[in-house]
Design goal:
By secondary structure, the chain is α/β, with parallel strands linked by helices. It is built from nine helices and seven strands; from the N terminus they run H-H-H-E-H-E-H-E-E-H-E-H-H-H-E-E. Bound molecules: S-adenosylmethionine (SAM). S-adenosylmethionine binds next to helix 4.
Length: 209
């Protein structure tokens, strides 16, 4: 079940950005939220970076400040058009995350911000396999997304947010053991940092097999 607000958030970029900024207050604001993936990240500025499901380029905007080869991929042509306007320095590809038009071992880091909760379980598995395929050996995969709250006080805000803006797949993600999924696909999970009472995770993994 979802509400009309979800439709608005995809239709009107200002609405998406406002909701995103309000939600990010739980981690200290949008600016801090967009930098969370940088913590402990040691990677060459010349590395090849993919912003998977880049949307209108919100995370891409932060990535281009640190890396010279950034590509954004999204299945929505409107999102890609908006990302090109927002962050012209990056390259963009309009494609599905579960079947990416990249050759094997073409990226050193794949980051995906607040998008995996939109995937059906089977799709999620396919995407993790695809990410594994396109990463270089020892390449890194960072997932930033919802997580089951560890602080009970955060259940009400997250449940309200999911009810207003998300679909059933977001609820499914709260029950999914992403770490196990990554491990069985050939990734070593290096850390899982939790924020906002445990309702947001930054999950870092590395291709090992
Ligand atoms: C909630 S937005 C996140 C956008 C951005 N990464 C951010 O941090 O704000 C999710 C994005 O995932 C994209 N998306 C959903 N399913 C996809 C798929 N199967 N392949 C590629 N992109 C997909 C949508 O088009 C949308 O732009």
């Amino acid at each position: 079940m979802t509400t009309i607000l979800r439709d608005w958030s995809y239709r009107y970029q200002w609405f998406y950005d406002t909701v995103s900024a309000l939600a990010a207050l739980s981690v200290g604001g949008e600016n801090r939220f967009r930098k969370l993936f940088l913590k402990d990240l040691q990677i060459n500025p010349d590395a090849k970076i993919l912003d998977l499901c880049c949307g209108a380029g919100q995370a891409t905007q932060e990535l281009v400040k640190h890396f010279s080869h950034v590509t954004g991929l999204d299945a929505s042509p409107i999102a890609i058009k908006r990302a090109k306007q927002r962050v012209p320095q990056a390259e963009y590809v309009d494609a599905f995350a579960e079947k990416m038009p990249f050759s094997d071992r073409s990226f050193d880091l794949v980051i995906t911000s607040t998008a995996m909760h939109e995937m059906e379980p089977e799709q999620l598995q396919q995407i993790i396999q695809e990410v594994h395929r396109i990463l270089t050996p020892e390449g890194q995969f960072i997932i930033i997304d919802f997580h089951r709250p560890t602080n009970p006080l955060f259940w009400l805000p997250i449940a309200t947010f999911l009810w207003l803006f998300e679909t059933e797949t977001a609820w499914q993600l709260l029950k999914t053991d992403l770490q196990q999924l990554l491990s069985k696909t050939g990734f070593k999970v290096e850390s899982c940092q939790l924020y906002a009472g445990g309702s947001l995770q930054v999950l870092r993994s590395r291709k090992v097999l």
